[in-house]
Amino acid sequence: MDHPTPAEPTQPAGWLDTNQANWNERVPIHVASDFYGVESFRAGREVLREHEIAEVGDVTGRTLLHLQCHFGQDTLSWARRGAARVVGLDFSERAVDTARTLAAELGLGPDRAAFVTADVYDAAEAVPDPSYDIVYTGTGALNWLPDIERWAGIAASLVAPGGFLYLAEFHPLTDALDDETGSRIIHDYFSRNAWVDDEPVTYTDGGATLVHRRTVEWQHPIGEVVSALCAAGLRLEFLHEHDTTVFERFDSLVRVGEQRYRFPADRPRIPLMYSLKASRPR
To answer: Does residue 194 carry a pLDDT above 90?
Structure first.
């Protein structure tokens, strides 16, 4: 896809409503796509990434909050892996309705898997519990938020003493690369400008043309994210960078597994995703 042209700094008027309309329209396209594979998910396919499963660890008997959960596949996957209760939050009402339906189809009632429609900045007031053992988020979530310090404060406030926040996200370095081969740095890694885009299709297969095409996004360097979480009172346990990603963002990427891509072996490696764990002391 074409990289959006930086607009004026700060927050364009109506950005939240703009993004919400776009994501509401994406939901049925995503549900029908091979990319998300809802039918195989219903049948038991694992959709969590290997590094997430390894780094989060055993969730048996624990409570988990998934911020910006889309239509809940990852959220429900943690319930399948033994979490005592999962709560998913997303600003798309259509996504939350779909998540609730999917949970019911899997036999997971609201006591095991609950979903809430709310802006992530309102999460502390919207979710049913004051705190959770695990706050989980990522994979294309932070770029929709203008204020990472505010996000970190809210997310950290929902981590129970002795619990942790886990974030798995696309590496912001990839946002500085050209959109075709990913071989040239052509954008400002440290830009704080909003990216205003007008993309007619979503990132999955299907090719349906969107009516609500406009989106507003931001990039957040890793140092900004880590510093915000530490300032919010969490203790960084690890920060890992990964040389693979979950979709074919650049034409030059090669497939190395189910929804796993990296640059070919004759190219120097760079980080394409990162993950971190930040805990709250007891």
So the answer is: yes
